[in-house]
Amino acid sequence: MHKTAIAIHGGAGTITQANLSPEQDKAYRAALKKAVEAGHQVLERGGSALDAVELAVVHLEDSPLFNAGRGSVFTKEGKHEMDAAIMCGKTLEAGALAGVRSIKNPVKLARAIMEHSDHVILSGYGAEEFALSYGLEFAPEAYFFDKYRYEQWSEVRDSDIFMLDHTAQRDEKFG
Amino acid sequence: TVGAVAVDQEGNVASATSTGGMTNKRYNRIGDTPIIGSGTYANNQTCAISCTGHGEFFIRAVVAYDVSCLMEYKGYTLQKACEEVVLKKLVKFGGEGGLIAVTPSAEVALVFNSEGMYRASKSTGEETLVAIYK
Fold first, then answer.
1. Residue B93's pLDDT band (boundaries 50, 70, 90)?
2. What percent of chain A clears pLDDT 70, i.e. is strictly above it?
3. With an 8 Å Cβ cutoff, are B30 and A83 in contact?
4. Residues of B forming the active site
5. Is the ipTM of this complex over 0.90?
6. Residue A172, φ and ψ in degrees, nearest 5
7. Of B3, B22, B123, the CB nearest to A9
8. Per-residue b or e along A124-141, where b marks 16 or more CB atoms closer than 10 Å to that residue's CB
9. Which of B6, B43, B109 sits opposite A52 (nearest CB)?
10. Which of A41, A67, A78, B57 could form a disulfide with B20 if both were Cys (CB 3.0 to 4.6 A apart)?
11. pLDDT tens across A129-158, in order?
């Protein structure tokens, strides 16, 4: 029997003690601990690495603290466009989606695409239609509203600037 | 962006990444998260990886697959491969961010070139690690 392990991240950037209050610091650490231990319990009970990473990411998507799922940021139009992916190291199968709205847990849709479609990446309304046909949970726009993210967006809404969620503003760069 | 990598009792690895994109983004811009080999990759021969940061750079540098290739073709350890890509290659052309990675033998790497990364890990029989700053 192999030794099990799981690691998670909730985003990288200009995250310093100066820009996190003690309460925020505590809240982030609690959310990370809950997610990583939920995933590790799956492994300890003999569950698959796929199930473990999916559950850990669902926990992070359900938290408003991180830029995914209900903590997603606002687009130029004031909407939420989400992307996700999952990949199995044993079979090299993968499922991914880009630019979906109203999907409560995008990582679950990635898993469904991996297991039930003949494709790797689905996008936009087609991915949403696939989610509907496999009974994935949708959520109204209000579910994705977060005051902090809205304020971040309000600062740049009327400009051409786009921002990483944890990094100070950048000049736009079009490759 | 959030992500997870894991290895189970059979020694299989897996990776998952999910993101809400960039604030104020337009034109249906897509980052590295859904691009297999850039933001998300898993291979039992090498490792599972999930990335976070400025997606355009992770796409152009094919970051996740690059780490796996350094292990597969040059015999790098997980930590060395991650540091080579994140702390050298990515920095060279201005890519900010980080990644998490795990091998079938349960080695874990949490490497980033930014000021912080929300991260946690847990291995059999070890305490949970939770960290934010460098």
1. confident
2. 94
3. yes
4. 1
5. yes
6. -65, 145
7. B3
8. eeebbebbeeeebeeeee
9. B6
10. A67
11. 999 999 999 999 999 999 989 998 999 998
